[in-house]
Structures are given as structure tokens and as C-alpha cells.
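=== RUN LOG ===
request id: a7f3
mode: sequence -> structure
chains: 1
length: 491
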Amino acid sequence: MITRRNLLRTSLFSTLAFGQAPKRPNILFVIADDWGFGHAGAYGATWLKTPNFDRVAREGVLFNNCFTSNPKCSPCRATILTGRNTWQLKEAINHQSIFPTEFPVYPSLLAEAGYLTGHTGKGWGPGDFKSTGWAHNPAGPVYNDLKLAPPYTGISPVDYAGNFGAFLQKRKSGQPFCFWLGGHEPHRAYEEGSGVRAGKKPNEVKLPGYYPENRAIKSDFLDYSLEVEWFDEHLGRALKKLEEVGELENTFIVVTSDHGEPFPRVKGQIYERGFHIPLAIRWGKNIPQGKVIDDFINTRDFAPTFLELAGAKAASTNTGTSLVNLLKTGQRDASKNVMLIGKERHDLGRPNDAGYPVRAIRTPNFLYIRNYFPNAWPAGNPETGYKNVDDSPTKTLLISNFDEFYRMSFGKRAAEELYDMKKDRDCLKNLATEPEHAMTKRTLRDRMDEMLRAEGDPRALGHADFFDTIEYTGPRKHSYDTWLKNQTPEK
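=== RESULT ===
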């Protein structure tokens, strides 16, 4: 009997030859942890070297406007796996949450369609997927046995490319595969000063406008750059393994990140650099080479893309849009050049474990942000250490001076923010209170609310109390009540 497991539906890019079904493409999804947009040679950066990402971009397509709907690890990865925005994922909107089983993930659907699936390094997480019934990480069965000695402290010993090779050896003859190669880099911590000791030059780093011109911050970025380069090295080794087994040209390769770099005002924050991420895609001669695409891409578009490529049945829960037609023809609906972004709670550090809810809308011209609780601290309370910002030399320097740079990264924010994306990508000048932008602000706010309601966002529908019921599954050492207990002497 012909079933979904062994027969592909014909798609716009596949044809039958000599009465035989076309060869299904493999999928290699390569994702960094905390790698910011623009930090690659293909984007013009000179202070770090990414020859393998640059190769993927040169032999495929480079994207200038790829975004995540929630700039933190586990919510973004949940979006990638399910093809849904995070406010459509119940508990998975939060960092360190559970992962509901009611939303199908593309690795499982591809496994049902006959693909060999697996992952190495960081899959979905951090969070709890076991208590909800997942047999393994939603990114696929794990391949982490092979280890190596990393060149710097802070780098994971997992041999990502080596484990990809071990995975390939498990294939049956002719079996297509889908593999998630998840680098732990460039997540902190770094070996402080390693970038300078490696010969990198601080004066080559151009800092964004929300940081002071400072050698220590530039050195911190250089330490980060070494871990980006480590990730890129594993990408190169994975490409070589594909060449060795003769599968490079039939493999759909996606290289991206989950959110911006782990620096103040970026990771976990609803500003441009927090949710804007790098993306390059290669698929041999099946898509143009050396093309640059400016269309808006959401990480929820990956799952429907992979399912269409495989001819697998699309998940009815997908709300993203396949990129196949855009990649092959360059044509996409211009009305889709709008992006919604949002968050609830990321990390602890506020009374009652409260979050810092934000929703935002990004168009080619503007970024509008709604901070629902402007009297709260957006990066976490000062007394608990601003725990929604990773500890770093840059953080230490900024919180040591209560100046404008401190305020931009850690201070309280206005209820509404509006930024001109043509003139102010660093989001430095808030236009929300300027009369000449009143109509723009109102139009964007109304459009955002309408879109969020259409997507079923509980906050937009008046059911925001749901978010207060979501359990935090991570360690509680930075919670507000733990801090308070430590301040109260025992009697």
C-alpha cells in the first residue's frame, strides 16, 4: 500500500523522472547560540572571520531581514520547531518553561515521513520537555557522544561536526536525513581577554551607540568573536562531511542563530539587535547563488519550509509561511514585510517571579514597542543583579556608572517607544511622544493589536493572567524571594 510514509506529494519544485519519485532533499539546520546579526564576513564585518558562513551565503542566499519573535533561547527554538509565534505556544512562550506536546514539531513529522532525524549540541532549551511526555528533545534524538578539547574555556567540548558524522553513519542506503547542529557558542561565559591574546585588534570593533567608546567592551566583543569563529569552524567541517558522502548538493542547509549577542540591551530585550538574526541558505543548483534577499523572514517560517521540501504533510498548527517559492522565484507577498515580536517572562529577578511583558511591531520603516509595565525594571531588579542580562565585563562596566549608557541598558522604559528604522537602527531616539509621529504610532499600535488578536495572543485577548500561571523550571538562585531571604537574618 502506498502511504504517506513512503510517497511524497508532488510540489512546485519536484518532478517525476522515468516514472520514479525524485530524490528527497536532506536538511541540515545549523544554529548558533546568541550570535548577532551582522557579525559575519558576508555582512561586512572585518573583526571576526566566518569563511564557512560566507561560503553558504556566496553559494546560496543571504538574508538581510530575518527575525525571531522572542529573543531568548527556548522561546525562539520553540518557534523554529513548531512554526508558530511564541504567544501561540502556551507555556513555551517563556524561557525555562515546559514544552507542550500539542504542537507538532517538524523533526517528528519528518521522521514519520521516513527521514532519519537527530541533533547535537543545544536543541530546544533550556527547559523541561520530559515531564510533558517527549521521548527525547523536540529537536530530535541526541548525538553528543563525541567530545574534543576546546581551545578556550567557556567553549563546549561537544564535537558537533564529529557527531554529525556519526549520525550520517546511521543512515540506511538512500534515506534522507534532517539534522539539527546546535552550537553552544557564542553563549557566555568567555575566557576573558582571549580575543586580544589571539591577536585581534580592539580598534577594529565598531560599537553600537548605546555603549560608550571603551576598550574593555571592545575586548569583550573580541572574546565573543572567537566563539563565533569556533561555531563557524564546525559549520565548515559539517560541509566537508557532506561533500565526503556525496550529499552536499542535495542538502538544504540553513545557518542562523536564535537571537542577538549576549550583551546588555540586546539578548532578551525587544530592540532591533535583540531579535534581528543572521541567516544564509544553500541548496546547490536548486536556488540562485549569491543572491541577497531583503524580505522579512520569521523563524516560524523554517518548519513549513522543511515540510514542503520533504513533501511531508504540513502541520495544521503551522502559522509560518514556507520560503520555498521565495528562494526559487524571489517572489513573496510584500504585505508580509511586517514582523511581530514579544515576550513575557525570561529569567527571574523580580517580585513574585513577575515577567516584563512587551509586544512590538517592526515594519521596513519603524519599530513600535509597547511596554505593559513601565514601572518595572526591564532587565530585572537592581538588587537581584539585573538577571535578564548575562553577566559580563560589559555589564559590570555599565552598571558601575549611573549615566545615560546605564539607563539605555538597565533603566526603566516608557510605556510606548517608536524608532525610525531607516535612521536609527540602534534605537536611541524614542519618537513616541513627538506630535509629528502621533499618527504613525497610532497606526502601528492598532495594526499590532489587530494582528495579535488574530493570532490568539492571550494578552491581546484580555487573558494575560494565564502567563502568571507558567512554572519556571530552571534554578531559583536568582529569584527575588531567594534574594530577600538572604537579606533577612535568621532569628
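=== NOTES ===
The chain is about 25% helix and 15% strand.
The first strand starts at residue 26 and ends at 32.
=== END ===
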